[in-house]
Write a structure and sequence with these properties.
The chain is of the alpha/beta class. Helices cover 38% and strands 12% of the residues. β3, α3 and β4 form a beta-alpha-beta unit.
């Protein structure tokens, strides 16, 4: 069985789900705070804090879950038989130019921050902005601030030019925690070759994502996911891949109603995942030996690359 670090898991996390994940090799997951109660891609300061408090209260009450504060907590959780949970936002909460407020988020356990969602924000363009502008002046300050705080910069939904600039400006590895290759499927949420190369040069990774509309239009298979895996490995090397499943087990359909108004980006409901369960994830990983991956490559993809980057970024504080 392969150890797995899942860099984006949107499932409804219960004690039962945590036990299932642990039984299938998942040692650590990253969860989105601003999608805890309801999906809110553009959280204001108050709602971001309200959700953060709710997340910490909920996961803190689960005996088989440990919230990650420092890198060593991942190993500690494993020793204790608990699922390690990393807290993050898929957009910078609305703090304007007052970047000192990021200290508060870090002190409350936030360890991953995406610098823009789909649309244009104050720091960077999102992947769905046609102008594809680069980082703003305060966005450049944001990159430096996140480096200093030891928070991983996530570029999953950030626009191409902004992604390249952030990766080149960052003194630490950056990541697209959940995305695939635009050259394989030209969906706005996938990363172009320029940003893939910039992420690789930073020492970071792209987390292969099982979300159907960014794997292949229609009902993708594992072979379609493998096309992204092989492409990214050929372009970035085996050290550039990770997993960001975007599983949504246990979540109600209505959470995704607004997204599904954009079928060109989000596909058709219900989504049919090419890797559709924790058990299937282990089978898919094992099958990668048939596609040019060595056992060392697979273990790096499943957990090793993510752990390397997290350790380097978080130890900078």
């Amino acid at each position: 069985m392969y150890d797995v670090v899942d860099l984006l898991n949107g499932a409804h996390i219960t004690a039962g789900y945590a036990d299932s994940a642990l039984s299938q090799g998942v040692m650590c997951i990253h969860v989105t705070i601003n999608s805890f109660s309801t999906i809110d891609p553009y959280p204001d300061f108050l709602s971001s804090m309200r959700e953060l408090a709710a997340v910490r209260r909920r996961y803190g009450a689960l005996e088989n879950v440990k919230i990650v504060e420092e890198f060593v907590d991942i190993a500690t959780a494993r020793t204790q038989g608990k699922l390690a949970v990393i807290l993050g936002y898929q957009n910078i909460p609305d703090i304007g130019r007052d970047l000192k407020l990021l200290d508060l988020y870090r002190d409350l356990g936030v360890r991953i921050l995406q610098i823009s969602h789909n649309a244009r924000g104050p720091y960077a363009d999102g992947c769905d902005e046609p102008a594809d502008a680069g980082l703003s002046a305060v966005g450049r300050e944001l990159v430096s601030a996140l480096n200093e705080l030891g928070i991983l910069i996530d570029l999953s939904h950030t626009g191409e030019r902004s992604s390249i600039e952030a990766a080149e400006l960052s003194k630490k590895p950056v990541a697209a925690t959940h995305a695939n290759a635009r050259a394989v499927l030209p969906n706005a949420r996938n990363k172009g070759d320029g940003s893939i190369d910039a992420i690789a040069r930073s020492g970071g990774f792209v987390g292969l994502c099982y979300l159907p509309p960014i794997v292949k239009e229609g009902a993708p298979s594992t072979e379609d996911l493998n096309a992204h895996a092989v492409y990214l490995k050929d372009r970035m090397g085996a050290t550039g891949l990770a997993i960001g499943s975007d599983f949504i087990d246990g979540q109600p359909d209505e959470r995704y109603a607004n997204f599904l108004k954009r079928p060109e980006v989000y596909g058709q409901w219900p989504w049919r995942y090419p890797v559709n369960s924790l058990e299937a994830q282990q089978r898919w990983l094992a099958s990668l030996t048939e596609h040019g991956f060595t056992e060392v490559d697979i273990r790096a993809l499943a957990a090793g690359n993510a752990l390397r980057v997290l350790k380097e970024v978080w130890s900078s504080k």
